[in-house]
Amino acid sequence: MDLDLLVTFLEIYRRGSLTAAATARGISQPAVSGQLARLEEQLGEALFTRSRNGAHPTARAHELARRIGPHLDGLRHTLAEEANEQAYQGTVRLGAASEFTAARLLPALAPLTRRGLHLRITLGLAEPLLASLADGELDLVVSSVRPPAELRGLAATPYVDEEFVLVGTPTAARSIDPQHLAEDPVAALAHLPLVAYAEELPIIRRYWRSEFNRRPPNPVSVLVPDLRAVLAAVIADAGISVLPRYLAEPALNAGSLEQLHRPQVLPLNTLYLVTRSGSAPPALQLVRRRLLDHATTWGPL
Question: How far is CA 244 from the centre of its chain?
């Protein structure tokens, strides 16, 4: 007897209709009807009576489901475990920013390596990483931007939101007049030097424009292309900066930094999980699912 016929029968039995069974099996309803008819022909008796309310099992159907159900469930479980174990034997090539990789990506994925998964991580900015993904050099990129239209064949899934905070030392905070900050924040902050990630002040400039509708006039004391180094310089009182909350949170909790400005609407930036379009190998599916599951517990970063 064809195993597919028994699987289809069990789906109809458990779901109560041919339509639901077809959806569960990923085949058409006529195909389900045909498989049921073949099984009933082989057994020599009807297994269901059909009505507007669905498919109602006969006594023979109850007996058959009782006999085959546990065995088919066990086989499915064994096959799923085997597929899962095969996924752990693969290699996944990821690209992401160094700060996010250290703070979130590696802690989420490292436990998978204990079961055999291999990770190869490339650190860098979103644009070159996305180009490498499109060229087939990477399997997945955690990107701070959507893939541009010219990079065809990429699929982006919203992953998690980064929240940005303006921070400085308690000494810097005491130098800001609260009333002046409320009335003219750009002027109230202008005496404080900036610690920036790049010459163009990408994160800081976006914060000033979104919150204050102006570019920052402040002098720049330190330029360093690593947000963890920016954090260290701010803690050392080299200036103020805008950082993702997930990086600044430990220092804020410890009191070595303070949030200098509290916007009415959180300044957020969405990160995306980007892969090439089409079917993904089991190891990549495993990593992507793990990252999405972890993100549900984080909230805005």
Answer: 17
